[in-house]
Amino acid sequence: MNILLINPPNCGRSIPEENYGIKSIKMIFRGEPLSLETLAGNLDGHAVAISDFKADPVALTAEKLPFAPDVVGITGVTCEANTVLAIAKEMKARFGAVVVVGGHHASCDPSFFCRPYVDYVVTGLGKLAFRQLIDAVEAEKAVNIDGILNIRNGAPQPFTPRAYSTADLVDHRPPRYDLVEQHRDTYVMSGVGGKTGFVASAFGCTHQCAFCCIPNMTGKRYLLHSNVSVVRDVRTLKDVNTIRLVDANTFGNADLARELARMIMDAGVVKPLVADVRSDTVVKHPDLFKLWQQAGLRVAVIGFEEINDQRLSQMNKRNTVKTNIAATRILKDLGIRIVGDFIVSPDYTQSEFEGLETFIDQSDIDLPIPAILTPIPGTPLYSKMASDILIDNLDYYTFTNAVTSTRMAEAQFYQSYAALLEHCLSRVHSSGAHAGKEIA
């Protein structure tokens, strides 16, 4: 069959820009569509193409498409969900194809995609489940697959959650990096060495932070790719300057992480590495990060989130400000740059904005990235804040809008946030650090 996989364009709307003329706040994702490359890797025997709107705004013109698709698969995060629906509707009308939706928002809120022009919703890890779906569709068999919501006949069929395991990683089938090779020059992360390739070593996380949608991808399990497959993928990406390990938590298993670092060095890989890590892991295993520095780790991305232990506890972060500070010192002593993610709550006061800016100025964090607390449907935070949500339009769920009321006057809140953001980004020029997302 002809299978077309679609990565939607950068999208989302901005309250600061629309209501107050503040144009300096925008989230831009520049990385390759690894989730689609991963799905494609397990579709041997079929003709597969990837249309990446983020790299090519006219990706679906007749001149660009290699075939008329029998099946269309579309991925998307929450702020892209409405755009995913628009693409799905177009693909159904244009080709009459079987339309399948997956990705983060589909995994958190699959019922959102119950529309006449969507046939199936793949929740969580889809590499194996999507292949099982393709096999069933090709054989014209009934689709009754765990983890897949079947709505092809106009109403959702009974849904069974999937019990995810390492089998869902399908380690022996590498991602189809070749399907986006024509866009490789556009997948650039400024400050970490030019062209950047994405590799996954793990899915899920060892923790369950209230705001995070990652646990929904694996049924709250932490699943590790084999180190052999990780090294294989790293070595496959020859025409890149930097490798970005895109896991929510690369170092959730310290012993296997040590083995992976040694295998990367033994393989003769000499590229800067960027990875996500919890600060408590750094403090508990400083020797691990000394080894990873030798293996090429140059940037660590840490979710510090807050500078107040009470707020951290409310997020179920299971961490402390003291530990965050200790981790930064360990990493800086090793010469590893730090990208620090922070969460600005809509109930911040001006003094809290000022306190965060002071904390950042006194820290060793090379690139702080403050985002606005956003309750994503399907997360514990959403359940907790549901009655406070004022904006249901998912276009605004970009982590740069307050979808609940602000304690400060709204205009003042966004002015303070924009000023904080500008102050944080001014550090980029001196540090050069960057991770898998940019705010411009």
Brief digest:
Helices cover 32% and strands 17% of the residues.
Report on this model:
- It is a single chain.
- The relative contact order is 0.13.
- The longest helix has 16 residues, at 410-425.
- The chain has two domains: 2-156, Rossmann fold (3-Layer(aba) Sandwich), CATH 3.40.50.280; 187-439, Alpha-Beta Barrel (TIM Barrel), CATH 3.20.20.
- The chain is an alpha/beta fold and 440 residues long.
- Strand 4 (71-74), helix 3 (81-95) and strand 5 (98-101) form a beta-alpha-beta unit.
- It has 15 helices and 17 strands.
- The protein starts with a strand and ends with a strand.
- The protein is globular.
- The strands form four sheets. Strands 8-9-12-13-14-15-16 form a seven-stranded mixed β-sheet.
Write down the Rg. Answer: 21 Å
- Biggest sheet strand order reads 8-9-12-13-14-15-16
CATH topology of the largest domain: TIM Barrel
The CATH top-level class label of the largest domain: Alpha Beta
Strand content is 15-25%
Q: Tell me the number of structural domains.
A: 2
Largest sheet features: 7 strands, mixed
Number of helices in the DSSP assignment: 15
Number of strands: 17
Looking at the overall shape, the CATH architecture of the largest domain is Alpha-Beta Barrel
What overall form do the CA principal axes indicate?
A: globular
| CATH homologous superfamily placement of the largest domain | Aldolase class I
